[in-house]
Structure to design on (755 residues):
């Protein structure tokens, strides 16, 4: 018997022998491309004070990621670019001119606590940015006051965060803002969370390059509209129009970038749609009925926690049918 | 990671079967052939020759329990019977024949050697004697020749005019070259299954042509070029309207599936011509377009490639089959058998990186899966040694199509993980 085969020694591996070109780094780079219109618009609007926060957040996130890898020895490598995206997303939520230490602490809470301690990208149960930002919001709420951060800005609109005015004045707040201004991001907000048009562009880009499934943003849209209609019917004094809810504050950021994060969202079509809807509904309800100004963050975290349960509504495997009798 | 790897997509380079005139290159007989006697889990032949015997082309050299036969594909002298690696990495006994000047057997002699008489032998027996394991008795991935049990009548006969894998063109080329012969011979095949509805599946661009040639006798079905839609099992279930469970053979449900190559071989066998030459499509790096050649069974991959001036040692991986479902060969001395239809070569720089990062739960695998498995969960259960839990997700429905791993951005070995659960489920049941 000839145990060792003659002939060329070849590389063996299991099929498939082709893979598409996707990689984790590619996913993150596409997300960065999608976020870039908002980031650029923000630097154009707010100049250096926005650029400083963005650069600091991205730099600190990457540095903390690398450092945490040294200490924790995680399999999640910084080369997958996920900390860059997390840093940028966090920066977009922060107010213009946030102090440096707040940015660094936020990055620590996002990257190290929110991501690394759960085992890295793929392991965390809630969006790390939502977790990090929520911890900042309960620790230093006054430092995150977006209305105060834009006191010096001379815009021809009501210089109060629309969502905040909604909480105090109810439906009447809607009249204080022109819809076009809201769409173009001429509204009091963070560095990039309210740059509606630019974020929408990014969201469409992600859909186009198939990084996100349409079910989540569509579900979120439906959820927001549903929430707004329900509120209008139940408490007319509080009920702004659905359009106002869609254009004000972080709604678009939430629907296109926060709820759609891959690790924390469901993977099956119907569960994704329901999850998006849940996120949108919670966003409106928290926005209207809670005094907390960070409705997006808490809506995202609650929806994230429901995601694994929703994924149990998966379709049945095909090809197990018992044939009809002949 | 390199910058170019962000955008380069191998899927964009999927080679297509040549359109229009077929070109099957006939290879001359090699100096030596190696003919396996066993297909594990499918069929086992007992040798009828021993080392030193002179054998003629078409002479039976192995016979199975049920009378299926394997033949010498060239004439010469039996060198030895030794173990070889087959394409699916089994170590099985095989007959090695060295080419020599021995006259071919005539069709009548072949029948006599199998204990049959020409004229009186039934068509099925004649087919078996000529090495065609007919669709009425065929063993395959889900069924072994020695399995007990009678099959129901054939209610659907599906003639496949293409192969699932995009780089395998032999079935289509044979259809183009032998369309009239197939059409004229078809009644003799369909006689064997008088109740059956006859289907012919072709790639969509050939549908109009096939309809013109085959007319009303068969139902011609055009299949789009998308790999997912080409996959045989779900397609044939849909076509025939019979929900065939993934774990059952088609025949257990009254469906016979016959690629054009085997249909033509069956027709030849009815005239006493043995099935000893097989088409195989060469594709991948050194071939601009898939090239279909025909060679004697038992020729090694090395000899096939050498005929085109290609040396396997220059390539990173040699795959028997196609890129999505083929088996990577351990050695290029692997012989060609009846159930192998293609050879696919990857350059050293084209090997897909198997980095096996942690799953990020993006769900692309699950959304790509034609069996609708929850691949993202299943694979993680297997990875964390919870095979029992993994089996709750019905891994036995997996088609082993490779789409889940194809799309995974973390480049996880998903097909292996699912197969592991499948195997374990088989053991546990
Ligand atoms: S190989 Fe993957 S995609 Fe194909 S059927 Fe199996 S689990 Fe689904
Ligand atoms: S495609 Fe890969 S990374 Fe995405 S869910 Fe499936 S196994 Fe996980």
């Amino acid at each position: 018997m000839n145990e060792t085969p003659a002939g060329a020694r070849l590389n063996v591996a299991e099929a498939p022998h082709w893979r598409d070109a996707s990689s984790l780094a590619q996913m993150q780079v596409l997300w960065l491309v999608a976020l870039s219109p908002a980031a650029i618009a923000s630097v154009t609007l707010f100049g250096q004070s926005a650029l400083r926060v963005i650069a600091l957040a991205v730099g600190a996130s990457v540095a903390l990621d690398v450092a945490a890898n040294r200490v924790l020895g995680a399999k999640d490598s910084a080369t997958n670019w996920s900390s860059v995206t997390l840093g940028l997303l966090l920066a977009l939520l922060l107010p213009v001119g946030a102090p440096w230490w707040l940015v660094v602490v936020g990055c620590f809470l996002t990257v190290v606590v929110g991501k690394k301690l759960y085992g890295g990208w793929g392991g965390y149960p809630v969006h790390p940015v939502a977790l990090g930002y929520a911890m900042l919001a309960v620790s230093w709420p006054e430092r995150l006051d977006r209305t105060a951060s834009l006191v010096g800005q001379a815009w021809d609109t009501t210089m109060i965060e629309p969502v905040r005015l909604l909480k105090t004045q109810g439906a009447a707040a809607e009249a204080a803002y022109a819809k076009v201004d809201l769409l173009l991001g001429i509204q009091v907000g963070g560095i990039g969370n309210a740059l509606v048009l630019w974020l929408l562009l990014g969201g469409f880009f992600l859909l186009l390059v198939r990084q996100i499934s349409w079910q989540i943003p569509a579900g979120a849209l439906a959820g927001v509209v549903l929430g707004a209609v329900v509120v209008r019917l139940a408490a007319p004094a509080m009920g702004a129009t659905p359009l106002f809810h869609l254009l004000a504050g972080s709604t678009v950021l939430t629907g296109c970038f926060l709820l759609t994060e891959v690790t924390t969202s469901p993977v099956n079509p119907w569960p994704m749609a329901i999850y998006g809807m849940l996120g949108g509904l919670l966003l409106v309800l928290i926005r209207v009925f809670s005094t907390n100004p960070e409705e997006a963050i808490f809506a995202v975290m609650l929806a994230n926690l429901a995601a694994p349960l929703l994924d149990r509504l998966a379709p049945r495997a095909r090809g197990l049918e018992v044939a009809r009798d002949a | 990671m390199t910058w170019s790897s962000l955008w380069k997509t191998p899927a964009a380079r999927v080679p297509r079967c040549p359109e229009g005139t077929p070109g099957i290159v006939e290879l001359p007989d090699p100096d030596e052939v190696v003919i396996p006697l066993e297909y594990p889990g499918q069929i086992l032949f007992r040798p009828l020759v021993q080392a030193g015997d002179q054998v003629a082309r078409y002479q039976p050299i192995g016979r199975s329990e049920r009378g299926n036969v394997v033949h010498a594909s060239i004439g010469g002298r039996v060198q030895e019977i030794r173990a070889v690696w087959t394409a699916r990495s089994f170590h099985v006994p095989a007959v090695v024949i060295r080419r020599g000047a021995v006259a071919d057997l005539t069709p009548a002699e072949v029948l006599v050697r199998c204990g049959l008489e020409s004229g009186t032998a039934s068509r099925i027996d004649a087919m078996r004697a000529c090495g065609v394991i007919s669709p009425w008795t065929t063993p395959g991935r889900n069924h072994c020749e020695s399995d007990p049990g009678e099959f129901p009548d054939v209610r659907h006969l599906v003639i496949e005019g293409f192969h699932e894998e995009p780089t395998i063109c032999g079935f289509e080329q044979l259809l183009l070259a032998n369309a009239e012969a197939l059409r004229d011979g078809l009644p003799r095949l369909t006689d064997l299954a008088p109740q059956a509805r006859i289907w012919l599946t072709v790639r969509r661009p050939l549908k109009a042509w096939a309809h013109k040639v085959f007319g009303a006798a068969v139902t011609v079905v055009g299949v789009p070029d998308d790999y997912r839609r080409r996959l045989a099992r779900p397609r044939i279930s849909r076509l025939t309207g019979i929900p065939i469970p993934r774990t059952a053979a088609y025949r257990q449900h009254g469906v016979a599936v016959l690629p054009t190559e085997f249909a033509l071989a069956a027709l030849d066998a009815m005239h006493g011509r043995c099935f000893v030459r097989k088409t195989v499509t060469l594709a991948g790096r050194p071939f601009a377009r898939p090239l279909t050649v025909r060679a004697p069974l038992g020729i090694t991959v090395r000899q096939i490639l050498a005929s085109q001036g290609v040396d396997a040692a220059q390539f990173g991986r040699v795959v028997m089959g196609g890129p999505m479902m083929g088996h990577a060969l351990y050695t290029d001395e692997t012989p060609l058998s009846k159930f192998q239809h293609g050879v696919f070569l990857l350059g050293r720089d084209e090997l897909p990186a198997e980095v096996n990062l942690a799953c990020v739960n993006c769900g692309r695998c699950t959304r790509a899966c034609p069996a609708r498995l929850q691949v993202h969960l299943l694979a993680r259960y297997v990875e964390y040694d919870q095979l029992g839990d993994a089996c709750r997700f019905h891994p036995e429905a997996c088609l082993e199509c490779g789409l889940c791993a194809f799309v995974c951005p973390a480049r996880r070995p998903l097909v292996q993980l699912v197969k592991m659960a499948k195997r374990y489920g088989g053991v546990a049941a």
Observations:
- The longest strand of chain B covers residues 76-85.
